[in-house]
Amino acid sequence: MGVLGTVGCTGEEDPQEPAGTCQAAWQHDYQGGTSSADEALSVWAGSSGAVYVAGYERGNLGQTNIEPSGDSRAVVLRFLPNGTLDRTEVTDTGGTDVAEHIVGSETQELLTVVGRTTGALENATNRGQFDLFVTQLDGKGNKQRTVQQGDARPQHPMKVAVHPNGSVFVAGFDDMFVQGRVVLDSENGFVTRINREGNGFASGAAWKFASTVESNPDRLTGFVASPSADALYSSGFKFFADSEGPGGAYVRRIDPANGNLLWTSVIAPVATEADELLLTPDNHLFLAGSSQMPLEPGVPVVGEVDVFLALLNPSDGQVQWIRTVGTQGSELATALARAPNGDIYVAGSTLGSFPGFTHQGGKDLFVLRFSADGRLRGTWQRGTAGNDQATALWVDPCGRVFLAGYTEGALVPGSQNQGSRDMFLLKVDVPQPQSPPL
């Protein structure tokens, strides 16, 4: 195998514990940053044991309605199987650059990164405020192809998926559109397809599905494609019903051939966010989110906002079962991943305390471990006196659970916070719960 898939991790499944063993033990977690703001926004790991983190560094916060601002740099960090930082790939246009999501393909030996920029990448022209970009790297970090697309609105891509034929799907939303201190439109969710053309990408989109109703925020945050890319699913929240469809927390299925909307399933009409989607190899569609509503039959909301995990029918989006978990505080789900043995992990932030843990101040990190049928099998919580935000979660073929995000404190022992926010990468072991969450 190539650089992305050298021997280092096996996928032998164990029905009780995360699958596989690694040749190199994880020796230390990572916290790093600059004197400005730095955030890890995505994480991916393959069978080689190497771990890749995408995000940004050197950004400014609190100066504009869309963050970060300033001369931030989009970065991809590669960690060795033992946790040592190996190298950092940088995209720096002179504008604001952010890497939002990274996925890997061991068969194609490619890393695909989607991000946004206020500048212009090589041989490209910026079309407005933030343009989206897609860059593909080989396992050594060499850029293979890049495309930049946009219009007058500020694009905020959240997810990328790769078609077996090399095309890519990008999902996210247009941020609030402001010109001259005048708000012209709210967020508009979108999914777009960019085809391969020769050795590169086509300069324009093959199709784009997008919300166009003004002043009705449609914040799309979840997206997943089937392995063959014959099915696309997106999730998010729309404030109210309009001419395009129902409001509330939704899951949509989109035709990958032409971008047509096939169906919309409403999870809850109000006070609920459908945040993250996951499609398993055996075609089970999972949704993680947060709600102030009692979504699980017979189970009241524990705190102000609880997290939920739901299994949906991939054919029509109907809920098969739903599980809610919470503390006396509030929880927000921000990441979702599957282990080789089928366990499902949900990560996010909490203002409360899960059993066996004590809230440290501000937002704490949490990871919940569920069986494939929705039974809670483990809880984990960690934090500092400041805000700690989980943004990404991945379980590698060895069953190692990796959590990425940013911290305002000293999250990793032996580290000191370098600026307003530091990025982090943690290997997380999720213990069995001591009792039902309070």
From TrEMBL:
The lineage of its organism: Bacteria, Pseudomonadati, Myxococcota, Myxococcia, Myxococcales. InterPro entries: Motility_Chemotaxis_Reg. PANTHER family: CELL SURFACE GLYCOPROTEIN (S-LAYER PROTEIN)-LIKE PROTEIN (PTHR35580), PHYTASE-LIKE DOMAIN-CONTAINING PROTEIN (PTHR35580:SF1). It comes from Corallococcus terminator. This is Uncharacterized protein.
